[in-house]
Design brief:
mainly alpha, about 35% helix
Length: about 120
């Protein structure tokens, strides 16, 4: 019978009270503060790592190429002041677009309502 009294506390069930709003709020606040501190430290470490990289290495810049249809020749100031008519390049690289009926393929599209 003594051993039964010794383990009696194992069968006793105490009603658990739900935590109060203040306790939940404090726990959430503490969790957010820790998450913010960790994220801030991670951002600082990343920034320091990027800034401490060797800045002497030149970065390769992409070299663009001019459009092949245009002449990229040198221009003299005398050419700009001349009275001759300049050559017009407005007709180059022009796309003829058909606007009428351009949206006909949308007539058969299925209409989906957002949920």
């Amino acid at each position: 019978m003594r051993w039964l009294l010794r383990f009696r506390h194992l069968w006793r069930v105490e009603p658990a009270q739900p935590p109060s709003f203040e306790a939940d709020e404090q726990r959430a606040k503490t969790g957010l503060e820790h998450a913010y501190r960790d994220q801030k430290q991670e951002d600082l470490d990343t920034s320091i790592e990027v800034l401490s990289e060797d800045a002497d290495e030149p970065r390769e810049e992409e070299q663009g190429s001019p459009a092949p249809a245009y002449d990229v020749g040198e221009v003299d100031s005398e050419d700009l002041l001349s009275e001759e008519a300049d050559e017009s390049h407005y007709s180059m690289d022009v796309v003829e677009a058909r606007i009428e009926g351009a949206d006909e393929h949308l007539l058969e599209a299925e209409h989906i309502e957002p949920e």
